[in-house]
Design a protein that fits this description.
Layout lengths: L10 E8 L6 H10 L12 E10 L2 E10 L6 H7 L5 E7 L3 H5 L1 H11 L5 E7 L12 H8 L4 E4 L8 H18 L31
Parallel strand pairs: 1-3, 1-4, 4-5, 5-6
Antiparallel strand pairs: 2-3
Length: 210
Protein backbone atom coordinates (compact mmCIF):
# COMPACT_ATOMS: atom_id res chain seq x y z
CA UNK A 1 0.00 0.00 0.00
CA UNK A 2 1.31 3.40 -0.92
CA UNK A 3 0.44 6.95 -0.04
CA UNK A 4 -0.58 9.68 -2.43
CA UNK A 5 -1.18 13.39 -2.08
CA UNK A 6 -3.05 13.58 -5.40
CA UNK A 7 -6.38 15.37 -5.22
CA UNK A 8 -8.09 12.63 -7.24
CA UNK A 9 -9.59 9.81 -5.21
CA UNK A 10 -12.01 6.92 -5.48
CA UNK A 11 -13.53 7.11 -2.00
CA UNK A 12 -13.80 9.85 0.59
CA UNK A 13 -13.82 8.54 4.17
CA UNK A 14 -14.47 10.66 7.25
CA UNK A 15 -12.71 9.45 10.41
CA UNK A 16 -13.35 11.06 13.80
CA UNK A 17 -10.82 10.76 16.63
CA UNK A 18 -12.39 10.70 20.10
CA UNK A 19 -11.33 9.87 23.64
CA UNK A 20 -10.37 11.59 26.87
CA UNK A 21 -7.96 14.51 26.89
CA UNK A 22 -4.31 13.45 26.95
CA UNK A 23 -4.77 9.91 25.62
CA UNK A 24 -2.69 10.64 22.50
CA UNK A 25 -5.22 11.32 19.74
CA UNK A 26 -3.25 14.19 18.22
CA UNK A 27 0.04 12.28 18.37
CA UNK A 28 -1.53 9.28 16.61
CA UNK A 29 -2.82 11.51 13.83
CA UNK A 30 0.53 13.29 13.54
CA UNK A 31 2.43 10.02 13.31
CA UNK A 32 0.06 8.70 10.65
CA UNK A 33 -0.11 11.86 8.53
CA UNK A 34 3.38 13.34 9.06
CA UNK A 35 5.21 10.12 9.97
CA UNK A 36 6.79 11.69 13.03
CA UNK A 37 6.14 11.93 16.75
CA UNK A 38 5.83 15.36 18.35
CA UNK A 39 5.39 15.21 22.15
CA UNK A 40 3.07 17.90 23.44
CA UNK A 41 0.96 18.67 26.49
CA UNK A 42 -1.20 21.09 24.53
CA UNK A 43 -4.86 20.08 24.36
CA UNK A 44 -6.86 20.28 21.15
CA UNK A 45 -9.39 23.11 21.11
CA UNK A 46 -12.53 22.21 19.19
CA UNK A 47 -11.26 20.03 16.33
CA UNK A 48 -8.41 19.92 13.82
CA UNK A 49 -8.74 18.50 10.31
CA UNK A 50 -5.93 16.50 8.69
CA UNK A 51 -5.96 14.88 5.26
CA UNK A 52 -4.23 11.67 4.20
CA UNK A 53 -4.65 9.64 1.02
CA UNK A 54 -4.03 5.90 1.00
CA UNK A 55 -3.96 3.44 -1.86
CA UNK A 56 -5.78 0.24 -0.97
CA UNK A 57 -6.38 -2.49 -3.53
CA UNK A 58 -5.58 -0.07 -6.37
CA UNK A 59 -8.11 2.44 -5.06
CA UNK A 60 -7.24 5.89 -3.75
CA UNK A 61 -8.90 6.51 -0.41
CA UNK A 62 -8.95 10.11 0.79
CA UNK A 63 -9.22 10.28 4.57
CA UNK A 64 -10.64 13.31 6.35
CA UNK A 65 -9.36 12.86 9.90
CA UNK A 66 -11.04 15.03 12.52
CA UNK A 67 -8.96 15.25 15.70
CA UNK A 68 -11.45 16.35 18.37
CA UNK A 69 -11.04 17.76 21.86
CA UNK A 70 -11.36 15.31 24.74
CA UNK A 71 -12.28 17.74 27.49
CA UNK A 72 -15.79 17.58 28.86
CA UNK A 73 -16.43 21.26 28.12
CA UNK A 74 -16.02 20.57 24.40
CA UNK A 75 -18.21 17.44 24.37
CA UNK A 76 -21.18 19.19 22.73
CA UNK A 77 -18.89 20.44 19.96
CA UNK A 78 -17.38 16.98 19.45
CA UNK A 79 -20.83 15.48 19.06
CA UNK A 80 -21.37 17.58 15.92
CA UNK A 81 -18.43 15.89 14.17
CA UNK A 82 -20.01 12.43 14.33
CA UNK A 83 -22.48 13.46 11.64
CA UNK A 84 -21.58 11.83 8.32
CA UNK A 85 -18.68 9.85 9.79
CA UNK A 86 -17.68 6.51 8.28
CA UNK A 87 -15.33 5.48 11.10
CA UNK A 88 -14.50 6.54 14.64
CA UNK A 89 -11.15 5.91 16.34
CA UNK A 90 -11.78 5.77 20.08
CA UNK A 91 -8.43 6.19 21.85
CA UNK A 92 -7.77 4.76 25.32
CA UNK A 93 -4.60 5.47 27.33
CA UNK A 94 -3.34 2.22 28.86
CA UNK A 95 -1.57 4.32 31.51
CA UNK A 96 -4.75 6.15 32.55
CA UNK A 97 -7.52 4.06 34.09
CA UNK A 98 -10.09 6.85 33.93
CA UNK A 99 -9.86 6.73 30.13
CA UNK A 100 -10.96 3.08 30.39
CA UNK A 101 -13.79 3.98 32.77
CA UNK A 102 -15.07 6.58 30.30
CA UNK A 103 -15.23 4.21 27.31
CA UNK A 104 -18.93 3.58 27.92
CA UNK A 105 -19.69 7.30 27.74
CA UNK A 106 -17.83 7.66 24.45
CA UNK A 107 -19.56 4.63 22.96
CA UNK A 108 -22.91 6.02 24.02
CA UNK A 109 -22.11 9.28 22.20
CA UNK A 110 -21.11 7.32 19.10
CA UNK A 111 -24.32 5.30 19.26
CA UNK A 112 -26.41 8.44 19.69
CA UNK A 113 -24.81 10.84 17.22
CA UNK A 114 -22.96 8.82 14.57
CA UNK A 115 -24.62 6.97 11.69
CA UNK A 116 -25.40 3.36 12.62
CA UNK A 117 -23.06 2.18 9.85
CA UNK A 118 -20.06 3.93 11.43
CA UNK A 119 -17.17 1.55 12.10
CA UNK A 120 -15.35 1.79 15.43
CA UNK A 121 -11.64 1.17 15.98
CA UNK A 122 -10.47 1.27 19.60
CA UNK A 123 -6.80 2.23 19.93
CA UNK A 124 -5.23 1.04 23.19
CA UNK A 125 -2.51 3.69 23.03
CA UNK A 126 0.91 4.02 24.73
CA UNK A 127 1.67 0.31 24.41
CA UNK A 128 5.37 1.25 24.40
CA UNK A 129 5.12 1.01 28.20
CA UNK A 130 5.88 -2.40 29.70
CA UNK A 131 2.86 -4.57 30.42
CA UNK A 132 3.50 -4.53 34.17
CA UNK A 133 3.36 -0.70 34.15
CA UNK A 134 -0.01 -0.44 32.42
CA UNK A 135 -3.21 0.12 34.36
CA UNK A 136 -5.48 -0.88 31.46
CA UNK A 137 -5.22 -4.51 30.42
CA UNK A 138 -5.79 -5.57 26.80
CA UNK A 139 -7.55 -8.75 27.90
CA UNK A 140 -9.98 -6.65 29.92
CA UNK A 141 -10.65 -4.44 26.90
CA UNK A 142 -11.26 -7.48 24.72
CA UNK A 143 -13.56 -9.06 27.30
CA UNK A 144 -15.66 -5.92 27.69
CA UNK A 145 -15.70 -4.52 24.17
CA UNK A 146 -14.12 -7.00 21.75
CA UNK A 147 -17.48 -8.31 20.56
CA UNK A 148 -18.48 -4.88 19.28
CA UNK A 149 -15.37 -2.99 18.20
CA UNK A 150 -11.96 -3.71 16.70
CA UNK A 151 -9.23 -3.21 19.31
CA UNK A 152 -5.65 -2.43 18.26
CA UNK A 153 -2.70 -1.75 20.57
CA UNK A 154 -0.85 1.35 19.36
CA UNK A 155 2.06 3.58 20.29
CA UNK A 156 2.12 7.08 18.86
CA UNK A 157 5.63 7.49 20.25
CA UNK A 158 7.10 4.47 18.49
CA UNK A 159 4.62 4.25 15.62
CA UNK A 160 3.49 0.78 16.63
CA UNK A 161 0.45 -0.29 14.56
CA UNK A 162 -0.57 3.34 13.97
CA UNK A 163 -0.84 2.91 10.22
CA UNK A 164 -2.62 -0.40 10.74
CA UNK A 165 -5.32 1.26 12.86
CA UNK A 166 -6.12 3.97 10.31
CA UNK A 167 -5.90 1.54 7.40
CA UNK A 168 -8.32 -0.81 9.16
CA UNK A 169 -10.75 2.07 9.67
CA UNK A 170 -10.49 2.98 5.98
CA UNK A 171 -10.86 -0.61 4.80
CA UNK A 172 -13.92 -1.26 6.95
CA UNK A 173 -15.56 1.97 5.79
CA UNK A 174 -14.88 1.31 2.11
CA UNK A 175 -16.08 -2.29 2.41
CA UNK A 176 -19.38 -1.00 3.74
CA UNK A 177 -19.66 1.66 1.04
CA UNK A 178 -19.00 -0.96 -1.64
CA UNK A 179 -21.72 -3.19 -0.19
CA UNK A 180 -24.38 -0.53 -0.70
CA UNK A 181 -26.63 -0.42 -3.78
CA UNK A 182 -24.84 1.40 -6.59
CA UNK A 183 -27.25 4.35 -6.48
CA UNK A 184 -26.50 4.80 -2.75
CA UNK A 185 -22.71 4.90 -2.98
CA UNK A 186 -20.98 6.60 -5.86
CA UNK A 187 -17.21 6.91 -5.57
CA UNK A 188 -16.72 10.57 -4.70
CA UNK A 189 -20.22 11.36 -3.46
CA UNK A 190 -20.96 8.81 -0.77
CA UNK A 191 -24.53 8.50 0.44
CA UNK A 192 -24.98 5.90 3.14
CA UNK A 193 -27.67 3.32 2.53
CA UNK A 194 -29.96 1.43 4.93
CA UNK A 195 -28.85 1.46 8.54
CA UNK A 196 -27.09 -1.59 9.94
CA UNK A 197 -25.95 -1.74 13.53
CA UNK A 198 -22.43 -2.96 14.23
CA UNK A 199 -22.73 -2.62 17.99
CA UNK A 200 -24.62 -5.83 18.63
CA UNK A 201 -23.47 -8.75 20.73
CA UNK A 202 -23.23 -9.41 24.45
CA UNK A 203 -24.12 -6.63 26.88
CA UNK A 204 -23.07 -8.35 30.08
CA UNK A 205 -19.94 -6.32 30.77
CA UNK A 206 -20.53 -3.74 33.54
CA UNK A 207 -18.07 -1.27 31.97
CA UNK A 208 -20.24 -0.52 28.94
CA UNK A 209 -23.64 1.10 28.80
CA UNK A 210 -24.53 -0.07 25.31
Amino acid sequence: MGDSTCMDYDYLVKIVMVGDSGVGKTQLVQHFVDEKYIPSNKSTIGADLRIKTLEINDRKIKLQIWDTAGQERFRSITQCYYRGSHAVCLVVDVMNYSSFQNIGNWLEDIRRYAPKETKIIMCANKCDYDADQRVVDLDELQRCFGQRVTIIETSAKEGTRVREAFTKAAEDAVAHIQSLPRKSASNNDVVLGPSMSMLGGRKSCPCTIL
